[in-house]
Amino acid sequence: MRGVKGQWALEVKVDGQDLNLDPTKLTSFSLVSNIQQALPSLHVGFKDDTGKFLENLMNDGAKVSVAIGNPGKHIYSGFNFILFGPPKVGNHASYNVIDFNAILDNVGWLRKVVDKPYKGTAASVIGELAREVGLQIDIDSSLDAMTWLPNRLPFVGYANHLLQRSFAGEGDALVMAITDMGKLRLKKLSSLMSGGRVLASNPSEGHFILDWAATPKSSSPNSSHGYGSTSIGMNLDGTIFEGNDVAVKMMSSMTSIMPGIKDTIGQLGTRINALAPLSGNTHEKWYEGIHQNPRVLSTYSFDVEVLTDLPTKLEILDTVFFKPINKANGKAATKVAGNYIVTATAKTIMGGRFYEKLVLTSQGMN
Q: Are 177 and 185 in contact (CB under 8 A)?
């Protein structure tokens, strides 16, 4: 491993061969974990100034191991990826540039197909799927026991199929992610309401952040899934299910939905979701789960991106308390402070320094 204390450390090996990378050779580097990704991803671009890497070009499916961090603070190690497609090769006057992409070394999660029924709750079945392909698990419980029939989807698609039909409790929902260390986390939103590390613009108040930016995205998800929709379905006894009101639990009074919007969540909107009639092999809260899950999730529509040069040791779906400063007056920016969920992490080296970027998500200030 190469590095400079207090600045950067990096080791990238492909099929056991150390690439001996440092900031002078790197053209790009990012190790990303995101709740929107099926698996964490890795991108590496570097200069090949001797030509040996072009002469011995790495193959699709090659094993990639990574360690990265800030010596004296913390070094992340044990990242295992697999090359996803052949590398891209470019050339300059005196050197080649090689770029490759990789994904977490668990192709089974993407490719293995469900070919048998599973009995249990949605959460327990997702945990069973994860264990079958060698993922670690950190899973909360759900209230939706039944026999889940196979539908020839790959494991990742089947897990999302179950997630959409799960029932975590009134006004609650499950959220799923896979960490860059190969752990599947399935958490109730109600368990992520508070606690965790403090990320602060003032280093005396918590983990120091260099910069931050807020990005609200409430309009689209809330109008399509939130207060703008109603669900209607037919129960086994012929009665009609009509899904309207959903009790929304708030993470923080500082990042809250405005009263006028909160009062309308669950009322009849312009979008009507017609649910398929029940056939008998469903859990008792089937309609309720399908109706409330996207509505509860749609309220989590306020993102804050933070940048730090100190390793946070945070995992995706950890909870943090964010304490930024209003740079215009040096006072606390209380309007965007509060509890947030880590929904993406990115580790990189730029300009001879290690950086970590986090995306923090809370309920939107509509």
A: yes
> Other C-beta atoms within 10 Å of 268: how many?
13
285, 225 Cβ separation under 8 angstroms:
no
- 10-residue mean pLDDT series, the chain (366 residues): 94 96 96 97 96 92 97 96 96 92 97 96 98 98 96 95 96 96 96 90 96 79 58 70 65 55 51 74 90 86 95 97 93 91 97 97 73
Copy the structure tokens of residue 39: 């698996």
Return the residue matching tokens 């789960």: 289
CA distance linking residue 134 with residue 140, whole number of Å: 19
Name residues whose C-beta falls within 8 Å of residue 360's C-beta, 6 or more positions apart in sequence.
199, 303, 304, 305, 306, 320, 322, 340, 341, 342, 343
pTM of the model: 0.90
- Sign of the dihedral defined by the CA atoms of residues 257, 259, 263, 269, in that order: negative
- Please report how many Cα atoms fall inside a 13 Å half-sphere around the Cα of residue 120, on the Cβ side: 10
